[in-house]
Every structure is written in structure tokens, then in C-alpha cells.
Design brief:
This protein has 337 residues and is of the alpha+beta class. Helices cover 36% and strands 12% of the residues. It has three domains: 158 residues, no CATH class; 37 residues, no CATH class; 65 residues, Orthogonal Bundle (Multidrug-efflux Transporter Regulator, Chain: A, Domain 2). The chain is extended, with a radius of gyration of 29 Å.
């Protein structure tokens, strides 16, 4: 990723243009709690300080992580960043296509934008601090700038612009980190089966159909054209966890009970043949606790028979057979009253 600009070694005598941060225009508002002055975060600060110790420590920690975040941004921008595949692509492998164990992070232009914003924020504050203190500052690199700013955190604690520096620098780092953070695990729970309206607000013949806004099936009173509803069909993804009871469609907003969606998927998947690892991951996401090692042990004990092998020679197991063994195991472990 290209550096923003070079910088000579002469002391900076003036702060940057007024569009950047400036200590001179910042007015920190203090409050008094129990006779002690507090900073903007609400924590008490020692006399002469405007940034609490905790905020200073958190800024230091964030600055230390900047070089790693920069490398991750470069990898994301170049389509190199990969995460373990945690969601099973629809429709639960029912098309018979083998899934990859690793899925590339889709290209996200926010990576370059976040990197540019972060580098700009770091250089602006380095310019400001160097100007205020009459110091030399380093070149605009991902290693030199954060390291130099770490050495300025102590000064910022008592500087009038300290609170603004903490908020702006940490905000830019947080934004950059969000771009490259691992996406949340989601579980596929089938397509949305809700009916959605297809009628436009105004028919092609010019008749306003707004009066039938509450109807799914609309007949135009002008040309008698019938606008029948359609099935939404959007893929539904839910957060994993036993406490999640509903899933909402991101397209139409319809909500479905998670239990019904999982049962429907498991019923459709009964005859699917999958390797042990993929099978365990798939049905675990649908609320069934089973591990690949349990499947392998059932095979060794003769309780589970594989049905052929995949292209890599991994044994394939029928989902319904594994489900029967899971149900039998749960039944044996459940106490009878």
C-alpha cells in the first residue's frame, strides 16, 4: 500500500491546515464527581491531566496493533485474506457439489479506504504533536508512525487536545480493524418461503395501485392485469446458539421459528452423503450435537456403514443414518421417570 507522502527531518513549526485536528480550537469540558475532576470518558483524572490512565493504555494498545492491522488491510485488498468456512452454503449441499474448506474473503473496497483514513489520521496527529512540541517526526510508514505516537501518549494525557486525539486515533484504528475482522458465524437455515407482493405502485397502463397496498395479489382495475405474489426465496442465515429462537429474512422481513427451519432442512438432508467432518459441521449448525470423532467411532464399531467415498478417498456417510445414531444416544442418556 503506497505511503501517503514523505517527510523531511526539519522540525514542524506550524500545525496542519485548519481542516485537521488542532489543539487551539478544542475546548475540553470537565465535570466534577465527588470533588474530583473527570475527563470526557467519565473517569477521574489526576490534577493537570485531561486523559485518564485507562484511555491512555487503550490508545497505546491500539497503536501497537497498527502494523498488523495494516498488513491485514493489504491482504484483504489483494483478495488474500481467508477465513475458515463457518457457514454451509445453500442449499445444505443438496446440489451434490463438494464445498471448499476455506473461502476467500470477498474483495472489499473499504480496505483501501480504511487504510487511507488510518494513515491520514496518524500523520495529521503526528504533524500536530511535532508542531506543538517542536520535535522531529518520522516518515509516514506503518511501523514508524505508530511507534513514535506511542511515545507521545504521556504528553497527550495533559495536552488540551488529548481527549480529541484519543477519540480520533482510536476511532480510525477501530474502523480499520472492523474491515478485516473475521465475519460473524452464521448458520444457513433454508430459503425464505414468505410470499411477497409483485405489484408496482403504478400499473403500466397508468392506473394507481396504491389503494391495494395491503394485498399480496393485485388486479389492476384499468387493464385487468393480475400481479400474483411470488415466493421470496432469499437465503436465511441465523446466529448459532440455543437461545436464538427466530430468524428474520433480510429481503422481505418475514420471521420464522428456528426450530421449524432446522427440522425442514434435516428432513431434506436425510439421504445426502457427506464426509464425517462436513456432515458434523452441517448438522451441528442445525442444532444437532455430533463430532467427526463420534462418527468415526461408530464406523469402527460397525454401527455406521459408509456409502462410497469422495474424490479424495474420504468415506461418505448418510445424514439420516448419523441422525438415527444421535437420537439413539440421546435416548439412552435421558433418565427415565
Amino acid at each position: 500500500m503506497a505511503r501517503r507522502r514523505g517527510h523531511d527531518r526539519r522540525p514542524v513549526s506550524q500545525p496542519p491546515a485548519p481542516t485537521g485536528p488542532t489543539c487551539r480550537v478544542v475546548r475540553v469540558t470537565y465535570s466534577v464527581v465527588g470533588g474530583r475532576r473527570t475527563g470526557p470518558c467519565g473517569a477521574a483524572v489526576p490534577p493537570g491531566m485531561v486523559v485518564c490512565g485507562r484511555c491512555a493504555d487503550e490508545l497505546l494498545t491500539d497503536l501497537v496493533h497498527v502494523p498488523g492491522i495494516a498488513l491485514a488491510l493489504e491482504a484483504a485488498h489483494g483478495r488474500q485474506l481467508q477465513f475458515g468456512a463457518s457457514r454451509l452454503p445453500p442449499p445444505f449441499g443438496l446440489d451434490g457439489v463438494e464445498r471448499e474448506e476455506e473461502s476467500a474473503l470477498p474483495f472489499d473496497p473499504r480496505a483501501s479506504e480504511a487504510a487511507a483514513m488510518l494513515l491520514d489520521t496518524l500523520t495529521r496527529w503526528a504533524d500536530l504533536i511535532a508542531g506543538a512540541r517542536g520535535l522531529f517526526r518520522p516518515l509516514d510508514t506503518w511501523t514508524a508512525l505508530p511507534a513514535w505516537l506511542c511515545g507521545q501518549v504521556g504528553w497527550l494525557r495533559s495536552a488540551e487536545c488529548g481527549p480529541e486525539a484519543v477519540v480520533k486515533v482510536r476511532g480510525a484504528i477501530r474502523h480499520a480493524r472492523l474491515v478485516v475482522d473475521r465475519p460473524p458465524d452464521l448458520v444457513y437455515v433454508g430459503p425464505c418461503s414468505a410470499l411477497v407482493r409483485t405489484a408496482p405502485r403504478v400499473c403500466g397502463c397508468g392506473v394507481d395501485l396504491a389503494g391495494q397496498a395491503g394485498l399480496l395479489s393485485v388486479t389492476c382495475p384499468g387493464c385487468a392485469r393480475v400481479f400474483a405474489p411470488r415466493v421470496c426465496g432469499a437465503d436465511l442465515y441465523a446466529r448459532p446458539g440455543r437461545d436464538v429462537t427466530e430468524v428474520a429474512c433480510r429481503e422481505c422481513g418475514a420471521r420464522f421459528p428456528i426450530g421449524d427451519r432446522r427440522a425442514w432442512l434435516l428432513e431434506r438432508a436425510q439421504d445426502r452423503l457427506l464426509p464425517a467432518t462436513e456432515l458434523a459441521r452441517a448438522i451441528d449448525g442445525l442444532g444437532v450435537d455430533v463430532t467427526p470423532s463420534a462418527i468415526w467411532k461408530w464406523k469402527e464399531r460397525g454401527r455406521l456403514v459408509p456409502h462410497g467415498a469422495d474424490a479424495l478417498g474420504h468415506p461418505l456417510y448418510r445424514v439420516g443414518d448419523v441422525m438415527d445414531l444421535v437420537d439413539a444416544t440421546v435416548a439412552r442418556s435421558t433418565p427415565r421417570h
